[in-house]
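Run log, item B.
One chain of 378 residues. Sequence copied directly from the ordering sheet:
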Amino acid sequence: MSAAAPTSLENSRPLRWGIIATGMVASWFVTDLCLNRPDAQARHVIQAVGSSSLEKTQKFVATHISANDVAGRHTGVKTYGSYAEVYVDPDVDIVYIATPHAMHRKNCLDAIAAGKHVLCEKPFTVNAREAREVFDAAKAKGVFVMEGVWTRFFPLVRTLQRLLHEEHVIGDVHRVFCDFAMPKPMAQLSQTDESRITNRALGAGTLLDIGIYSLMWGMLALDPGVGESARKPQVLASQSIVNGVDWATSMFLTYATSEDGASPAQQAILTSSSLAKTPAAFCRIEGTTGYVVVEGFAGSVPAFFTVHDTTAPDAQLKKYEFERPGKGFYWEADAVAHSIAAGKTENELMPWAETLRVMDLMDEVRRQGGATFPQDEQ
């Protein structure tokens, strides 16, 4: 599904990345950048990595970059024992932030203050107020900033949106079910209160961690708009709360009937939980002439989807599969590179207004459900 790489790619200037944090997601991101992709849409160089200690950084580079860099594009990676050294490195163009949720605001502001572009993992911040503060700083500095909701850039997701909203393969979409549940030892983790999964100060709970993906699928399936062009749904929410942390969240979105009355109200039932594992078929999208089932390991990494045409006598179906070497972080990285090369401060698939729309919705879910963070009181 990817377009052929432009002939001038080899002569283009690479985007030089500084990596903040050395956890699992950061390892996935850098391993993907090391892949030798024949259909690559941009050039990337991992310029520097920073962590809380130099030893951790050096081990990370040896394990996840040097060992996977078969094409030899990421030699001489600078290793730092702090984040600040990455921010001020003159050879770093953009900082990729993969720290715990509650650290995103400060990490973004520090990188922006140093004049760096930013790609920050989801959730962008722990609440909408913090996100607005970061975007205000980016606007003042004139740098590119984007929330790293990598799944939105999958060819699978973009193809599904086209089929739903342009080709109307299942007619008018009217309902979506999506669940993202992964079992976690919540009671055990709560005893020490050190894990980002259960520590409120670190942005704990299922909503910001995995419920954000269920929310994404509901919004993308029901509304072709993004950011300021998207509609605002009504929200009803309930959360299972233990010590201020949501162990499970249920969200019910309703999009009102269109002004001309042609389109009836749409609904999305979206859930997240730390107490179970979602089956492979994690999302079902229903329309007037059929339905779509999306399957994969989890809501963040869809593998394929099947379109079911219920108007056909034999209830025909068509399966859409997409090749995905590695994890798939390179699609968002390529999009970021193109936006920066074009002199943009936002990306059209994930603009600032879309991040704020999602953050506002999650703030409202928590207001109704009861999950709280210390940052809400600041």
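Observations after the first pass:
- Residues 352-369 form the longest helix (18 residues).
- The first strand starts at residue 15 and ends at 20.
Flagged for discussion on Thursday.
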